[in-house]
Structures are given as C-alpha cells and as structure tokens.
C-alpha cells in the first residue's frame, strides 16, 4: 500500500541513534496502547451483548458481511488519512482511535464464534503466535540491510486480490479454506516487514502516531488469519 512521502523532513533512518530509539519507543508504545484499547472495546462488546448481536446480524446472509467489510475499509481509509495529518496531532490520535474501534467491531463476531466453538485456548494460542511472529518480523525489518521496498507491489496487489476473493466468497457462499489463511498470513507478514522498514526510511521523528496506525492494521490482519487457521470455523 502507498506510503506518504515526507520530503521536507529528515527521515528517522538518517537521524542519530538516540532519535531513532526515541521514535521507535513512541511508535510501539502507541501500538501497545492501541492493543489495550482494542481489548477494552472487545470486553465491552462481549459484556454488553454487542458481539452476539453482531453475530445474529451477520448470520442473515452475505450483504451484512459485505456492509461490515465495506464500513471497515472506509473507516480504515479515513483513519489512515487522519493519522497522517501531521500538522494536527488531534487528528492523528482520532485516526488511531477510529481504526481501533473499526477493528474491534469487525473482530468481535468472529471472536464470539471461536469462543463458542473452540474455546478461549484457541484465541490465546492465536494471540501468542501472532505476538511471536510480529516480534520476529519486527526484528528482521529493523535489522536487515536489504531493501524491502520490493515487497510493496506484493502487499498492494495481494491485498486487492484478497479483498476480491473475500467479497466473492461472501456473495457465492463459499469457503476460502485453509490455504487462503496461510496465504493471508504470508501477506500480513510481508506488510509488517515492509512497513517496519518504511517508517524508518520515510517518516520523520514526530510521525510516530501515523507509523503506529500502519503497523496496527497489519498486526490485526495477522491475528485474524492466525486465529482463522487455528479455529474449526475455517
């Protein structure tokens, strides 16, 4: 996916080691806060009955899933744009909040189904595998000297093909199967690698909220398909 070009500022990669460390600390601190906010929202949805209500709504058929997916895409686009309004810190934080809320809503019905059919152990296992995978990919993205920009076309076109496949499956009522989950895990991993290196090469030191938004979306994509792979509702 396209990344904003910050031509008027020195990217973090060309700053001192202290500046780079401070930038990364802020990025991953904001990412951790976003994950905490997601957990709080999911808890509220489960306790308040919102997750079960979404399951009942989506069980009516394909259009409901399409509306949810379309709404998420719109919110994700708006959130990303807001997060990169670098002259307005308030807009950046609003963008981060918006994408967290959108992820919580789209994830809630799937989590409810997995809890009911597979139990909490499957969700916990998916969370652990996602955390380990994200940490490993982050390390590679930060430490490798290879130019990972070659992953950009894969991430862009892979995302488009995946979206078309999901829409087609919803409309036709078919199951995408195990290998689709495996492919999407690979796509999410490529996105994390590319974005981790890109935020260092293109972002100035004060664009840490926008960087957190990018990484949060890819992290949630990875978790979704790891959970899908482990669950019996593939």
In short:
This protein is 79% helix and 0% strand.
Can you give a write-up of this model?
The protein has one domain. It is built from 8 helices and no strands. It is globular, with a radius of gyration of 18 Å. The relative contact order is 0.17.
Properties at a glance:
single chain, 234 residues, mainly alpha, 8 helices, 79% helix
Architecture blueprint of SSEs:
Elements: H1 17-47, H2 50-58, H3 62-83, H4 89-117, H5 120-143, H6 151-172, H7 177-202, H8 208-230
Helix pairs in contact: 1-4, 1-8, 2-4, 3-4, 3-6, 3-8, 4-8, 5-7, 5-8, 6-7, 7-8
Provide the helix percentage: over 70%
Return the structural class.
mainly alpha
The dominant shape is: globular
Biggest beta sheet summary: none
